Amino acid sequence: MIADVITIFPAMVEAALAAGVGGRARERGVVDVKVRDLRDYTDDRHRTVDDVPYGGGPGMVMKPEPLFRAVEAIAAERGAPSAVVLMTPQGRRFDQATAIRLSQLERLVLICGRYEGVDERVAESLVTEEISIGDYVLTGGELPALVVLDAVVRLVPGVVGDAGSVETESFAGGLLDFPHYTRPASFRGRDVPEVLLSGHHAEIARWRDAQRVERTKRRRPDLLKGNHHEGDRNG
Ligand code: 4GX
């Protein structure tokens, strides 16, 4: 997979990538992530990426020209992107199904918005999908882009050593994960469930399945109700 991140804070995104977001993926050469400084695609002396909003109001809006030039330069260098994703609270909520879909794409471009957002013509004519990582307001799309990249890159074949761990983890089958334990068997008066020490693999598997269902009922009943697509409504 080829991924390009467009941002006005390239050092922030580089730092997270260097610290290991998708580190194994890049080590193994299955993923090639490049960070692009949006200001490199401006043509004025001040490297301007924003401007005042038409119609007035507070804040600034990201100008369309640098974003179009950036995506066109990436397309020329890497080939036409399979998806151009804009990180925005106006987008569709990011979930594991979306991560799986994006992990199957050849070339991904992620745009990190700042300020009040981007000129709507970017959303209409350049972006292929808008994604939100959740219903809260951040200062920019950099952290959301890193969240999406982290979730996507680990699903690219050849990234996670044990393919089984990707299949059996939390959300596989739409359920939460079962509880995990390691040594010691007794810690500050709290014991590891007897069944896990039994060596009885079939029984352990049954116990874990039951735990997953129980946990999901208690903590995330929405996952069992089949309304994965509906957020909880306010008011
Ligand atoms: N999940 N933000 C983006 C600026 C912005 C606004 C509109 C484009 C269009 C966020 C989130 C998020 C704050 C990133 C506003 N850019 N992004 N930024 N939640 O809160 O993705």
Explain how this protein is built.
The protein is built from ten helices and nine strands. It has 235 residues and is of the alpha/beta class. The strands form three sheets. It has a five-stranded parallel β-sheet, sandwiched between helices. The protein has a two-stranded antiparallel ribbon with strand order 3-4. The chain starts with a strand and ends in an 11-residue tail after the last helix. The mean pLDDT is 92. The structure holds ligand 4GX. Ligand 4GX binds at residues 86-90, 113-114, 117-118, 132-134, 136-138, 140-141, 144. Residues 86-90, 113-114, 117-118, 132-134, 136-138, 140-141, 144 line the site of ligand 4GX.
* Distance between the first and last residues' Cα: 42 Å
Question: Are any ligands bound, and if so which?
Answer: ligand 4GX
Give the fraction of residues assigned to helices: 25-40%
Main beta-sheet annotation:
5 strands, parallel
Low-confidence sequence ranges: none
Fraction in beta strands: 15-25%
Number of strands: 9
Number of helices: 10
Structural class: alpha/beta
What is the arithmetic mean of pLDDT? 92
- Order of helices and strands, N to C? EHHEEEHEHEHEHHEEHHH
Overall morphology: elongated
Looking across the biggest beta sheet, what order are the strands in? 2-1-6-5-7
What's the alpha carbon Rg, rounded to whole Å? Answer: 22 Å
What topology emerges from the helices and strands here?
Elements: E1 2-7, H1 10-18, H2 23-27, E2 32-37, E3 50-51, E4 61-62, H3 64-78, E5 83-93, H4 96-103, E6 107-112, H5 120-125, E7 129-132, H6 142-153, H7 163-168, E8 186-187, E9 190-191, H8 194-197, H9 201-219, H10 221-224
Parallel strand pairs: 1-2, 1-6, 5-6, 5-7
Antiparallel strand pairs: 3-4, 8-9
Helix pairs in contact: 4-6
